[in-house]
Write a structure and sequence with these properties.
- This is Aldehyde reductase.
- InterPro entries: AKR, Aldo/ket_reductase_CS, NAD(P)_OxRdtase_dom_sf, NADP_OxRdtase_dom.
- One of its GO terms (molecular function) is oxidoreductase activity.
- Pfam families: Aldo_ket_red.
- This protein is of the alpha/beta class and 330 residues long.
- It is 35% helix and 11% strand.
- It has ten helices and ten strands.
- The strands form two sheets. It has an eight-stranded parallel beta sheet with strand order 3-4-5-6-7-8-9-10.
- The longest helix has 17 residues.
- The radius of gyration is 19 Å and the shape is globular.
- It starts with 5 loop residues before the first strand and ends in a 37-residue tail after the last helix.
- The structure holds NADP nicotinamide-adenine-dinucleotide phosphate.
- The site of NADP nicotinamide-adenine-dinucleotide phosphate has 28 residues, from helix 9.
Length: 330
């Protein structure tokens, strides 16, 4: 991996500028996702974004082994789900991910969501955990301490946050011994999160962009009527035509130029190959990058309604939009 295709983290380790997502959601089962991981590694991807809750780490682990790519050339990440926030459960979850992915270390482990609220796979946005609680910094810190222990042990190389906010990151930066190296966040042209993105960069936290194409095939339950479609935005279409590529590729070229690490998902070889090749070739011009910056609409797609606690009013309560943490125990 050379510097044109990697970014350097706070530890000095490098991470590829683009990776492969592995969340098959309702549409793609473990073996289809695993086949895409194997094909993606053969096509040149070196970063794989996994998670315990995706339910496919064992199949993905077999695909990684079958690819024959040396482990040291790969950056493999996993995440701890909400049912494993208790410190012992978190450690057990990471050890299971290590075993399933067939590796003696993970390059990064993320806390998938900062809320310890149960959310069953495929839950409808109306579903609620009646014992759900708002963010609890003492509980989050206890979880983080457990993950720090895994870094000390050498089985995890970097820690990361996901679906977090500036106020929550400020608390973590104040209290963590092993600082977060990465933050996985929703990032696509119509949702650029400039404040959180800037905060991460200023604090040496590498942003990883999930749903980088605007998740065009997400399930109906994750859609609302006024959600924009990134790959149909007129500016994205105009730039795609100028470069002779699919609009999805423009989203990735913009992401790489801006400095986040996009992790597009696809099980279709023509798509995941085009995504990798396109993201690294034929950069957008300064004028095109300015036009892409103006595409932002602050349009969050993954709103997180299922994490709401009794008394919370709307999904906006999850994202600390006024700079404070609702009900938060700091
Ligand atoms: N940390 C978190 O909480 C979190 C949340 C969400 C996602 N993620 C991670 O981010 C990854 C990506 O997010 P995502 O899957 O939501 O969204 P995405 O990557 O924005 O969209 C994926 C979909 O885009 C379509 N696509 C991909 N490449 C294309 C191309 N070249 N041309 C046309 N269409 C293309 C495919 O649709 P078809 O299948 O219909 O062809 C694919 O299923 C996930 O797999 C997961 O690893 C993390």
């Amino acid at each position: 991996m050379d510097t044109a295709t990697t970014r350097t983290l706070r530890t000095g380790a490098t991470i590829p500028v683009i990776g492969l997502g592995t969340f098959g959601s309702d549409r793609y089962g473990p073996e289809e996702v695993a086949a895409a991981v194997r094909g993606g590694l053969e096509a040149g991807y070196r970063l794989v974004d996994c998670a315990a809750v995706y339910g496919n780490e064992a199949a993905v682990g077999r695909a990684i082994a079958a690819s024959g790519v040396p482990r040291d050339d790969l950056f493999v990440m996993s995440k701890v789900w909400n049912d494993a926030h208790d410190p012992d459960a978190a450690v057990a979850s990471v050890r299971r991910s290590l075993r399933d992915l067939g590796t003696d270390h993970l390059d990064a482990v993320f806390v998938h969501w900062p809320f310890p609220n149960h959310h069953a796979p495929h839950a409808s946005v109306e579903d609620r955990d009646r014992t759900a609680r708002p963010y609890d910094h003492a509980a989050y810190t206890a979880l983080w301490r457990a993950l720090e222990g895994l870094v000390d042990e050498g089985v995890v190389r970097h820690l990361g946050t996901s679906n977090t906010t500036v106020p929550k990151l400020r608390l973590l930066l104040r209290d963590a011994r092993v600082l977060p190296s990465l933050n996985e966040m929703e990032l696509h042209p119509t949702f650029q999160q400039p404040e959180l993105f800037g905060f991460c960069v200023d604090n040496d936290i590498q942003p990883v962009g999930y749903s980088p194409l605007g998740s065009p095939s997400r399930p109906e339950r994750d859609r609302t009527d006024d959600d924009p479609v990134d790959v149909e935005h007129p500016t994205v279409l105009r730039i795609a035509e100028a470069h002779g590529v699919h609009p999805a590729v423009v989203c990735l070229q913009w992401a790489v130029a801006r400095g986040q690490v996009p992790i597009p998902f696809s099980v279709k070889p023509e798509q995941y190959r085009a995504n990798l090749e396109g993201a690294l070739a034929d950069p957008l011009t300064p004028d095109e990058l300015r036009a892409m910056a103006a595409v932002d609409r602050g349009a969050r797609l993954i709103k997180g309604q299922v994490f709401l606690w009794p008394g919370a009013t709307s999904w906006h309560d999850l994202w600390d939009e006024d700079g404070t943490i609702p009900g938060g125990l700091a």
